């Protein structure tokens, strides 16, 4: 596989240099943009594998950049921002961001989030090359044509709502889905009063899907924000 191409969108020189140095040590190639307009243009011409995006840019809010990019691309976007409120995270994720990392951040966490995004890129490429009605992720398997789910070869008996939730998460593997997005897609009603019901269904889904629901392997909770289907590592994949 070619070296991953990363677009760094950051107007703070110190943070931009930190991210660039981190990518260099991991053998990633990168390009840097310091404005929103530059980010959109570079996303079009540079065609990166992942965008690392600061929200507080001098000419454009990062959420607007996400919306612009999403009109023509599914490029994974990881927000790296000092905005730490749940409302800011939800707004960015609802606009189409894949993940959200709050400043200050550790280098190890940044690289971990980046690996998740790159696994999604590889997964999307594989799906493009070989369209299939079967989803496989580690020991999890979904046969969309038959409407069945399996864990380690054993069928998992799910309610219609649980199955819809599982399929929605699976089709967005590696991406954080907000409560509102899930409620709208599954129930057609993104009202806050429905969030407790969503939590109940997610809990029952976990009990059926996870070997140890207290330490989930597949469905990750982002408290106050939403949920993510974790892309399992392949046996031949290096960290």
Describe it for me?
With 239 residues, this protein is α/β, with parallel strands linked by helices. The protein folds into 2 domains: 5-125, 3-Layer(aba) Sandwich (Rossmann fold); 132-229, Arc Repressor Mutant, subunit A, CATH 1.10.10. It has 8 helices and 12 strands. Strand 8 (148-151) and strand 9 (154-156) form a beta hairpin. The longest helix is centred in the middle third of the chain and has 23 residues, at 107-129. It is globular and about 50 Å long. The mean pLDDT is 87.
Q: Report the strand count.
A: 12
Mean pLDDT: 87
So what's the CATH class of the largest domain? Alpha Beta
Principal-axis shape equals globular
Uncertain spans: none
Structure annotation, total helices: 8
Strand order of the largest sheet: 2-1-3-4-5
CATH superfamily of the largest domain: Response regulator
N-end to C-end Cα span: 14 Å
Classify the fold: give the CATH topology of the largest domain: Rossmann fold
Instruction: Give, in order, the helices and strands.
Output: EHEHEHEHEHEEEEHEHHEE
Structural class: alpha/beta
- Identify the CATH architecture of the largest domain: 3-Layer(aba) Sandwich
Q: Provide the β-strand percentage band.
A: 15-25%
Radius of gyration: 18 Å
Please give the largest β-sheet: 5 strands, parallel
Q: Kindly state the percentage of residues in helix.
A: 40-55%
Compute the number of structural domains: 2
InterPro entries: CheY-like_superfamily, OmpR/PhoB-type_DNA-bd, Sig_transdc_resp-reg_receiver, WalR-like, WH-like_DNA-bd_sf
Domain Response regulatory: 5-118
Pfam families: Response_reg, Trans_reg_C
DNA-binding region: 132-231
């Amino acid at each position: 596989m070619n070296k991953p191409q990363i677009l760094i969108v950051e107007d703070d020189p110190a943070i931009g240099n930190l991210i660039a140095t981190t990518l260099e040590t991991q053998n990633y190639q990168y390009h840097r943009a310091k404005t929103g307009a530059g980010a959109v243009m570079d996303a079009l011409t540079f065609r990166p594998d992942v965008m690392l995006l600061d929200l507080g840019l001098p000419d454009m809010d990062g959420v607007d950049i996400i919306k612009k990019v999403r009109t023509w691309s599914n490029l994974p976007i990881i927000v790296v921002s000092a905005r730490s409120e749940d409302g800011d995270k939800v707004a960015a994720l609802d606009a189409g961001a894949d993940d959200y990392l709050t400043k200050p951040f550790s280098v190890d966490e940044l690289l971990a989030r980046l690996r998740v995004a790159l696994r999604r890129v590889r997964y999307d490429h594989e799906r493009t090359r070989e369209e299939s009605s079967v989803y496989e992720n580690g020991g999890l398997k979904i046969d969309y044509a038959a409407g069945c789910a399996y864990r380690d070869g054993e069928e998992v008996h799910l309610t219609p709502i649980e199955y819809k939730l599982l399929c929605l998460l699976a089709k967005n593997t590696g991406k954080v889905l907000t409560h509102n997005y899930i409620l709208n897609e599954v129930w057609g009603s993104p009202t806050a009063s429905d969030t407790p019901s969503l939590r109940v269904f997610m809990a029952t889904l976990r009990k059926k899907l996870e070997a140890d629901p207290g330490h989930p392997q597949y469905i990750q909770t982002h408290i106050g924000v939403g949920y993510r289907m974790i892309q399992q590592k392949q046996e031949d994949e290096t960290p």
